[in-house]
Amino acid sequence: QKEVEQNSGPLSVPEGAIASLNCTYSDRVSQSFFWYRQYSGKSPELIMSIYSNGDKEDGRFTAQLNKASQYVSLLIRDSQPSDSATYLCAVKGGAQKLVFGQGTRLTINP
Amino acid sequence: DTGVSQDPRHKITKRGQNVTFRCDPISEHNRLYWYRQTLGQGPEFLTYFQNEAQLEKSRLLSDRFSAERPKGSFSTLEIQRTEQGDSAMYLCASSFAGQHEKLFFGSGTQLSVL
């Protein structure tokens, strides 16, 4: 079992709709959870962090964490073509290093 | 520019040659990480430093790879006797150690081994 799992996609969403990205993790002692956005040929950019159960909102982005289910999600409201990118889920568990999922490729269709 | 800086941006080398990459972290950050990323995959952890001490190295990392951070500031990653399988994007990230540590990445070095 991979430490951090994501559906690789591609996920296609019409412009203006809500994009929902999901991630599961295996290390129960994980404490910190992150979403990074990566445009093609570029490096990952941190867009959200979440540390406790529940929802965290930042503009059009909402991160959701459920530690009992070992599940993290990212919602993007009012999706724009500029949101088209690969979204990486990253988890920091008992070890200090950040472990990444393989990423979900998101395409927003105008 | 106060972000993480990596040099070079691109490196093309022949199999068997040695290559060295440099990373300059955000100045106030005390941790520095190296990751490797291949197409369609997420970044894979290689090693990390806190100040000048190398605290963890991936068990999957070949002995041909070595990293240093001699004065706790910039870091170098050297790959000896490169192989075609080493072709990847090498990413450096820095952070400030703490309960809610956040990693910020540089632009990466794209290595192509011919």
Comma- or semicolon-separated keywords:
heterodimer; A: about 110 residues; mainly beta; six-stranded mixed sheet; five-stranded antiparallel sheet; about 0% helix; about 55% strand; globular; B: about 110 residues; seven-stranded mixed sheet; four-stranded antiparallel sheet; 11 strands; about 50% strand
Q: Give the rounded overall mean pLDDT of chain B.
A: 94
By helix and strand content of chain B, what is the structural category? mainly beta
Structural class of chain A: mainly beta
User: In DSSP terms, counting alpha (H) and pi (I) runs of 4 or more, how many helices of chain A?
Assistant: 0
User: Which range best describes the helical content of chain A: under 10%, 10-25%, 25-40%, 40-55%, 55-70% or over 70%?
Assistant: under 10%
Order of helices and strands of chain A: EEEEEEEEEEE
Q: Main sheet of chain B, how many strands, which sense, barrel?
A: 7 strands, mixed
* Head-to-tail CA distance between termini of chain B: 33 Å
The description of the largest β-sheet of chain A is: 6 strands, mixed
Q: How far do the termini of chain A sit from each other?
A: 37 Å
Model description:
- The complex is a heterodimer of chains A (110) and B (114).
- Chain A is mostly beta strands.
- Chain A has no helices and eleven strands.
- Chain A has strands spanning 4-6, 11-14, 19-25, 32-38, 45-50, 54-58, 61-66, 71-76, 85-92, 98-100, 104-109.
- In chain A, strands 2, 4, 5, 9, 10 and 11 form a six-stranded mixed sheet that branches. Chain A has a five-stranded antiparallel sheet with strand order 1-3-8-7-6, with no helix packed on it.
- The mean pLDDT of chain A is 94.
- By secondary structure, chain B is mostly beta strands.
- Helices cover 0% and strands 49% of the residues of chain B.
- Chain B is built from no helices and eleven strands.
- Chain B has strands at residues 5-7, 10-13, 19-24, 31-37, 44-50, 53-57, 65-68, 75-79, 88-95, 104-105, 109-113.
- In chain B, the strands form two sheets. In chain B, strands 2, 4, 5, 6, 9, 10 and 11 form a seven-stranded mixed sheet that branches. Chain B has a four-stranded antiparallel sheet with strand order 1-3-8-7, with no helix packed on it.
- Chain B is globular and about 40 Å long.
- In chain B, 33% of the residues are buried.
- Chains A and B meet through strand 4, strand 5, strand 9 and strand 10 of A and strand 5 and strand 10 of B.
